[in-house]
Amino acid sequence: APGLGDLAKKAGLKYFGTAVDNVVLDNEKYTSIAFNYSEFNQITPANGQKWMYIEPSRNVFNYTLGDQIVDPSKDAGQLRRCHNFLWHNQLPDWLSHGNWTKTALLSVLENHIKHEADYYWGDCYAWDVVNEAFNDDGTLRQDIWLQTIGPEYIEHAFRFARKYTSPGTKLYYNDYGIERVNNKSVAIQQMVKDFGKRGVPIDGVGLQAHFTVGRSPSYTEIRASQQLYTGLGLETALTELDVRIELPDNANKTAAQATVYAESVRACVDEKRCVGVTVWDFWDPVSWVPDTFPGWGDACLWDEGFVRKPAYYAVADMLRKA
Ligand code: G3I
Question: Which InterPro entries match (predicted)?
Answer without folding.
Answer: GH, GH10, GH10_dom
